[in-house]
Design brief:
homodimer; alpha/beta; Aspartate Aminotransferase, domain 2; four-stranded antiparallel sheet; 11 strands; binds pyridoxal-5'-phosphate; lyase (chains A, B); decarboxylase (chains A, B)
């Protein structure tokens, strides 16, 4: 092992990263690469080398071959999809996590990793003002770090199926009888998770007229009809901050419908959940008292690199009853004493890295004040962008919520044409979507280097493309 | 953002990691911490700080509070479970991956990340001498990096269910009719994945008498009986290198049974798969021509940190038909051209980090020669340990394959007592299991710092505990 050179090369890599971040901050790099499909493939040899190569050479090659073909999610002109945040604290934590190289599947496989995760999940639950019962300290609930909101909703749905089946699910599976409810506005990860869980197509509950929010009365009616037809409503997935328009389902009313019927309520707050760090952005917490599980992607809007989704459950035994399994080679006295948490039973994978160090570093390095400031900063940039758009003829702000601004041109043809022009522009990345059947552009503010000057630059780029249309 | 201090703190962290690795290599640290449950929880404040703290202080605290409560998987005395490997190249790659902070859900969300992954999966397929059709370059198959073997078998099972249902599965789920087959020796992640996929309890096929290997004739009989009973055999999971005894199911015969019946064959080679880097350890590749999917944990035995499992499929459309889903906000011209790979459709999560950089760094830094040398080194240590055990009265080697030595004392009472003594010993970690109803100890060689001297130290520790028994 080349330990000797590691420290020097790692220091070099850190310097390069700082230079890279500065180049991004200064918008000296394009957001989107220009190479056609196959560019990177062609640049890489067809076979792995037989002999080892120097780390310094591989590092060079990273900047020569790979970096120019990346979409720079941390670029100030990156407004695509939802952000995947980052910060030096998060990067440092990944270095340390990798270097320590422990595996935290069970308490006994690394006690400190497990307890750190319990603690930071409690920290975050408190910082987000989530119900107390989601905390490990409550004794009944707790948080666990997943790789993604998709994996979080998958295990939540699976726990719901198990609970709804009164014990049959483990042996017999879904039997074509269980139903999971969401809406057409729910992120695609939810119908995907429902399929993966063997429950078929998720039921799309109608929206409240004129909104992108689930209609609780329609939900209740649909559940009752399904029950009458011999089906078993197992779970509802409500969203706080949908992907297309950052809409929020009426969780208090949905929760009441679920509670009356004993149905699991999972709340997907992948993006908007982080905003609850700020007291003024806590509307999305309404009704969480009814929720069985709740997930937020710290990697979307909390200066924490991907992957880092936190899933909280109100009753952890519902989760561990469903996905817990301990083979003979995993048995150990600590687990059997039932005084410790074994996170393997809270997730799909068996093995897992020390997942919590990153969130610990980020929460400490930024402090809650720093994380709130970041949210407020991004929200203020969205306000600025929305104002600029509204002040312009021939543009319309369709929706503006938190860090998201959804807008379009005066005609759909012009919107589509603008999408195409922007797709080819390397200095700004906005991603298209469809709202109420019409094409829109989404601008999600949250890339850590985006500032007022960047918003003005972005807007003048968009305007100049629009001006060229007519 | 504290970019200014980042480079300095990262350099410091790298130095500390090197010092940590040296301390591990010199066995100056215990493998297992001694603190009771709650030790780390108690050492951490109950609330996150309001104000940001210095990265240097957080780094200090990591070594003060967290490191002493970890199980050191990279310690030369760590022989527990299966290894989770590591190397400086892997750690460096994690630093760079985190620092670049891109999200590779689709080709268009980071072309270089996707194409690098295609390339390194092909590199590895070739280095392991896997069938050509598993390569992206074949046009039909391809590899994808998953977090774990559990997630790999989950998506493989889901693809199998979809294929077996001839289109019904997406809409109707598993309907209680599909069967997935494995054995009692299969890793717990497999029955767990089958449950999560909504297919209920995996069917445990009997073993060939006197072995820990699946009986292909019993498999065929069971499948045919199930089919006669109106059930649909969807998938078989065969193992190359089981967790307890590193047994290998007869894949050629199982493959023939599957092929005759059009049933998906997934081969789980989480641990032993890496050994196929060496031509002399390629027995496990026999019959892979019949396999629909194959997975190996690079993070177990390929000097690559967790998480890094590679899943190959022979027909990638089987996977993407099952778990592919593209909402309006994910549509893009490259995906629609069908000339690119979108890895979101090959896995459970939507978002994903740049997963391939780590494997690229490791394969280049070590070279295939270096990776083979590491495998041979670990296998030779297992040979040494097995010899030492066999030469000792009152001990028995139950199984010795590749890097795994399974052993016991002359009576079960003594084995159980030895397990207990070793659990309390901080300098060696062997994990217990049950083989044919009798307690055993497993010693898995593969921690990167274990060498001959370490094996002698480990053995003399075990011997001295045994000597104290009588
Ligand atoms: C509301 C919402 N839920 C879930 C997801 C899926 O997140 P992940 O990529 O972590 O699976 C997204 C992704 O953008 C999202 O916006
Ligand atoms: C044979 C085998 N398969 C699967 C797994 C599960 O691997 P993972 O932790 O990556 O899910 C293991 C873990 O040790 C294993 O030994």
């Amino acid at each position: 092992m080349n330990d000797e050179v590691f420290a020097a090369v790692a220091a070099d890599a850190a310097e390069r990263l700082v230079a890279h971040w500065r180049a991004l901050a200064a918008a000296e790099l394009p957001v989107v690469p220009s190479g056609p499909p196959g560019t990177t493939l062609k640049a890489l040899p067809e076979q792995a080398p037989e002999k080892g190569e120097d780390l310094a050479e591989i590092l060079d090659d990273t900047w020569r071959t790979i970096v120019p073909q990346l979409v720079h999610w941390q670029h100030p002109g990156f407004l695509g999809w939802f952000p995947t945040n980052n910060s030096p604290a998060s990067v440092l934590a990944e270095l340390v996590t990798a270097g320590l190289g422990v595996q935290g599947m069970m308490w006994s496989s690394s006690p400190g990793a497990t307890e750190l995760e319990q603690r930071v999940c409690d920290w975050l639950a408190r910082a987000l003002a989530l119900p107390q019962r989601f905390q490990h300290a409550s004794g009944q609930g707790g948080g666990v770090i997943q790789d993604s909101a998709s994996s979080a909703v998958l295990v939540a749905v699976v726990a719901a199926l198990n609970r709804a089946s009164v014990g049959r699910w483990r042996a017999h599976g879904t039997e074509g009888r269980y139903r999971v409810y969401c809406t057409a506005q729910t992120n695609s990860s939810v119908p995907k998770a429902v399929r993966i869980a063997g429950a078929g197509e998720a039921v799309q509950v109608p929206l409240l007229p004129g909104t992108h929010e689930m209609d609780p009365a329609a939900l209740a009616a649909r559940m009752d009809a399904d029950r009458s037809a011999g089906l078993i409503p197992a779970a509802v997935v409500a969203t706080v901050g949908t992907t297309t328009t950052c809409a929020t389902d009426p969780v208090p009313e949905i929760g009441a419908v679920c509670q009356e019927r004993g149905v699991w309520l999972h709340v997907d707050a992948a993006y908007a959940g982080s905003a609850a760090l700020c007291p003024e952005f806590r509307d999305g917490n309404a009704g969480l008292g009814h929720a069985d599980s709740y997930a937020v992607n710290a990697h979307k809007w909390m200066r924490t690199g991907i992957p880092c989704d936190v899933l909280w459950v109100a009753d952890h035994t519902a989760l561990t009853d469903a996905v817990g399994l301990t083979a003979s080679y995993l048995r150990n006295p600590a687990s059997e004493s039932r005084t410790v948490v074994d996170f393997k039973d809270w997730q799909v994978p068996l093995g897992r890295p020390m997942r919590a160090l990153k969130l610990w570093y980020v929460m400490r390095a930024h402090g809650l004040e720093g994380l709130r400031e970041a949210i407020r900063h991004d929200v203020s940039l969205a306000v600025l962008l929305a104002r600029l758009i509204e002040a312009e003829g021939g543009f319309e702000v369709v929706v503006h919520r938190l860090g998201l601004v959804v807008f379009r041109r005066d005609t759909d043809a012009r919107t589509r044409d603008l999408v195409e022009r922007l797709t080819r522009d390397p200095v700004v990345l906005c991603t298209p979507a469809t709202v109420d059947g019409r094409p829109v552009l989404r601008a999600a503010l949250g890339s850590p280097y985006t500032d007022e000057a960047a918003v003005h630059r972005i807007w003048s780029t968009i305007r100049s493309h629009a001006a060229a249309q007519d």
